[in-house]
């Protein structure tokens, strides 16, 4: 039976190999410190954090996430260690909340390797604190116990580390937060809640597992709240109940009833939302989350089976009776058979969940609106200019190695909340390494043009404007669709003078709109200010950029998105290496995508590495030319 702890309460730990699961509802940093008998952390080598996630007997997550699983083996920690503190902290400098006051109470649970909870604790009462010691595992008279701590620190991670006796806590805090910022830069941001009951509930076929979950080998990644038991089969709700609201959205279309013992029939738009586009957007993100979590459960089950195999093999080898005759061989074969059976069972459940997601994908894909659809959709062949601003844009597909044919559309919210960086470097992936540098740069620019074309096509006439900086004119062939169709108001800027002119124009627009908004006079802008969303494509950075231009570019990346100016960089980071760490904030502010498949993106729930595949425009350029021709014609008509 699970012990539901309150602050200061302790509970014995029945075994040494454990998992600590965290559900926070918002990306947090999870770490741990090792302490001596007085609780003092003797040095940075006693701190496990995203930049250094492994210590003897301890492994933590490599990035900030809403959910975490920390692995603990208390028998493997050094003998001088008597305390293990589990830490949570909000990442700073990335635009998130400054304290826990605005967030749901974090929930932590200590579980055995089979997923059964030993103890849980909901950390309530946090206010101005941005870091908290959640739990303490401590050794007392040779036995280990867990204590609910809940000690918060308004001074954040630095104050918390210093309080634990770390001499240079502030320096380590900076190292940790830098590592977290780098991890968040590669993470696909979860969509903000737009409707009031957006929690996704999936129904799966088959009997429930031993804990009521439909996955027999491991529980859901987000543990249920102590006051809400796991249902006995049927729907499994992955969302923490404290993150719900009450006003109901319009009901989604009803799904046909499922036959007994079979999965429910998928329906396009079965998620919540005020419009079909929003329902489909939420449904795609629900599929994304479901695949992330069911894969996490499978991987956890495999890890558990292999850990159990290791324990049983150690036990068999340590028994002197198994060293004579065939007893040892039989014991090893039985242990491996159990391991294979557990993995096969987990794989069966994974395949069942994936089959359901594949069926749902086959229904959802044809129903996606223009902005979410692939280039081969009939909507693009029969293109018609939209009348309303889109909610999101598809910029590629994502998949995991367990099932590469199950592809999740990668939808980014519009207006763009982060700029895009299309990496033209050869160090990102194996596919890039096999390509010629000039060919890769052209492919990167082709990808940028395809994304820009989709943006122009999904906005109403006059609502989106594209600017291009190509200092050396190296992208002339890739830019032909944009230039020849007439969708650009001005030709691509070349040379240092052209770079300076475009940056000055957009910087002035950002300044004017910011002043108007702050002064409450957003409708009093000068007549020459283009109020449409602006996209600046920069090719071959930093060629053609002096220090002033570089400062303006960073300003646009930081301040532009809030007033409708967005950045798309086509660049190789190695080309700008001379600037050193000065440009690190710029790269981190942009969402990196690649012109070739690459596994650099992470989901916001469990941090899997997902393979991203870009959406390349159809070969030949006919479809792209026809679509952009209609866009250009509509823009000319709109301006009359």
Helix content class: 25-40%
Structural class: alpha+beta
Number of helices: 12
Distance between the termini: 73 Å
> How many beta strands in the DSSP annotation?
23
Average pLDDT level: 83
Roughly how many Å is the radius of gyration?
27 Å
Strand content: 15-25%
Instruction: Please tell me what the overall shape is.
Output: globular
The major sheet is characterized as: 12 strands, mixed
Give the uncertain stretches in residue-range form.
194-248
Question: What tags apply to this protein structure?
Answer:
about 650 residues; twelve-stranded mixed β-sheet; about 30% helix; about 20% strand; globular
Summarize the structure.
With 640 residues, this protein is an alpha+beta fold. The chain has twelve helices and 23 strands.
Can you offer a commentary on this structure?
Helix 7 crosses helix 12 and helix 9 (495-518) packs parallel to helix 10. This protein has helices at 156-163, 169-185, 276-318, 327-367, 378-381, 430-433, 437-458, 480-485, 495-518, 547-559, 584-589, 622-639; strands spanning 3-5, 10-12, 17-35, 47-48, 54-55, 58-59, 65-73, 83-89, 107-111, 117-122, 131-140, 143-153, 201-203, 235-237, 392-399, 408-413, 419-423, 464-469, 533-541, 565-571, 590-593, 598-602, 609-614. The strands form four sheets. Strands 1, 2, 3, 4, 5, 6, 7, 8, 9, 10, 11 and 12 form a twelve-stranded mixed sheet that branches. Strands 18-19-20-17-21 form a five-stranded parallel sheet, sandwiched between helices. Strands 16-15-23-22 form a four-stranded antiparallel sheet. Helices cover 32% and strands 22% of the residues. The chain is α+β, with helices and mostly antiparallel strands. The chain is globular.
